[in-house]
Design brief:
With about 475 residues, the chain is mostly beta strands. About 5% of the residues lie in helices and about 45% in strands. The protein contains 3 helices and 31 strands. The strands form 10 sheets. A 6-stranded antiparallel β-sheet has the order 15-14-21-17-19-18, with no helix packed on it. The longest helix has 10 residues, at about 5-15.
């Protein structure tokens, strides 16, 4: 052992220096690969160029997945990991690592709880569980994290089980409850989404690499703008017709309210709102200040009333609220607030088509739209479908997805996908690379109880 120092000195004298240390970067996330991100950019230390890694649909990102192994001469540095979808940043996280021997591992957690959270404090420059923490708070160094909500750092508390069947819940080393989506529990061609459960693993249009952005002309770049990214910001619901009361704050038989927490200035906001019974004027116009109506319809034998409207977000109030017009009986209702980024803010909504079924109520309910004509490459197409059900009892309704679409939202007036008292709707989305007609968009709604319905749907084109 005493010879180690002289030998090292001799090697240095001969021009030999010890090799660099190795940094291993891992990521953990509850976001859905391919559906919510298709590439991972790693900005490593030591001044090296960013590394782009393609997301794998078969990788279990709820557990650590290695994305980089690199030599480093640093003893401490920041590493930044960014998730991208079709060339657009979706989420990012930064962590600081300290040298820990010849090989150092740093795990960067990129979770949906931290999307939109900005941490700029010098002592709390990273996000964990929606809160700002020290940037050296990692699974490898949990002692740098604040007191947690579970496990040893949270007084031994256990995490509640996930309400999503394909998601496991566990306590992370940092002391926060995290979801682990398990796609192996889903069917063929599906992945596990930590919020929506098993969904279609739709592969989006090929995104742009950094090189393509750098090399393309301004015209090419305009033509290659990626498809806008849609998410559900908030939802609201109400029903008390068959005994139990279901509802979110501000929702009642006489009016509606939906929280706007999570909205970002500059994004496109779309409200989809449906209520049982009603009339052509049951939803006020505008639905909320500054919104432009796309459609409002009242149809069916028992009658259902749905409205859709949009606006570009700017200093939004904490809540959108209003009072129903004439025609309300049960007041069973569902509202979804969507946030869509990467849009043409001057002309975001380029086309829409509302279709109401004809003929008498049936079950199953074939729902079909002639579609819309998109005007720009990589347009986002939203498809909203509902029905006026005539069953006078709690019932279970299921939806199929139109070919090439994936699910964005599905909810009943009880606050779950199903069952419902009276009102339920689905929102699906797809991207269209080449401008032109979408062609027919069709799916089926089915009730497992003895009741029939007349369908309604709206197709909407949104420009990047």
């Amino acid at each position: 052992m005493r010879l180690a120092a002289p030998i090292a000195a001799l090697l240095m004298g001969l021009g030999c220096t010890p090799g660099p240390n190795i940094l291993l970067v891992q990521v953990v996330s509850d976001l859905t690969p391919i559906v919510e991100f298709d590439h991972i950019r790693v900005e490593a230390p030591s001044g090296g160029p960013p590394v782009m890694v393609e997301a794998r649909v078969d990788a279990a990102y709820g557990r650590p997945v290695r994305v980089l192994s690199t030599p480093t001469i640093d003893t401490s540095a920041l590493v930044r990991v960014t998730f991208l979808l079709q060339g657009r940043e979706v989420a990012s996280a930064t962590r600081r690592w300290q040298l820990a021997g010849t090989t150092t591992i740093v795990t960067v957690r990129v979770d949906r709880d931290c999307i939109g959270v900005t941490c700029t404090d010098a002592l709390a420059g990273a996000c964990l569980g929606g809160m700002c923490v020290r940037d050296d708070c990692t699974p490898e160094t949990p002692q740098n994290c604040p007191p947690g909500s579970c496990g040893p750092r949270g007084g031994g508390r256990a995490c509640p089980a996930s309400t999503v069947a394909c998601v496991d819940t566990s306590c992370s080393p940092e002391g926060v409850c995290v979801g682990d989506p398990r796609s192996e529990r889903c069917g063929p061609g599906q992945v596990c989404d930590s919020v929506r459960g098993c969904i279609a693993a739709l592969v989006p249009n090929a995104g742009m690499s950094d090189a393509s952005v750098t090399d393309a002309s301004a015209t090419d770049a305009a033509l290659m703008r990626p498809t806008p990214v849609a998410r559900v910001v908030q939802s609201a619901y109400f029903s008390d017709w068959f005994g139990p009361v279901f509802g979110t704050p501000g929702m009642s038989r006489s009016g509606y309210a939906i929280d706007t927490t999570g909205v970002s200035d500059g994004e496109l906001l779309v409200i989809v709102a449906c209520v049982d019974n009603g009339s052509d004027t049951v939803w006020p116009d505008p639905l909320a200040p500054g919104f432009t109506r796309i459609t409002q319809d009242n149809w069916g034998t028992d009658h259902q009333s749905c409205a859709i409207a949009w606006r570009i977000a700017h200093q939004e109030p904490a809540t959108y609220a209003g009072t129903y017009g004439p025609g309300i009986v049960s007041g069973s209702s569902v509202i979804a607030l969507l946030g869509i980024t990467g849009i043409d803010a001057a002309h975001p909504v380029t086309a829409s088509l509302t279709t109401i079924g004809t003929g008498g109520p049936v079950n199953p309910v074939p729902t079909s739209s002639a579609g819309v004509t998109t005007t720009t490459p990589n347009s986002l197409v939203l498809y909203v479908d509902s029905a006026d059900w005539d069953c006078f009892n709690v019932s279970t309704v299921s939806y199929t997805l139109p070919t090439g679409f994936r699910s964005l939202f599905e909810m009943s007036d009880q606050g779950t996908a199903s069952p419902k008292d009276w009102t339920t709707f689905q929102i699906a989305m797809s991207s269209q690379a080449v401008p032109g007609p979408t062609g027919t968009i069709a799916n089926v709604q089915t009730s497992t109880t003895t009741c029939n319905a007349i369908p309604w749907n709206v197709a909407i084109a949104i420009s990047p």
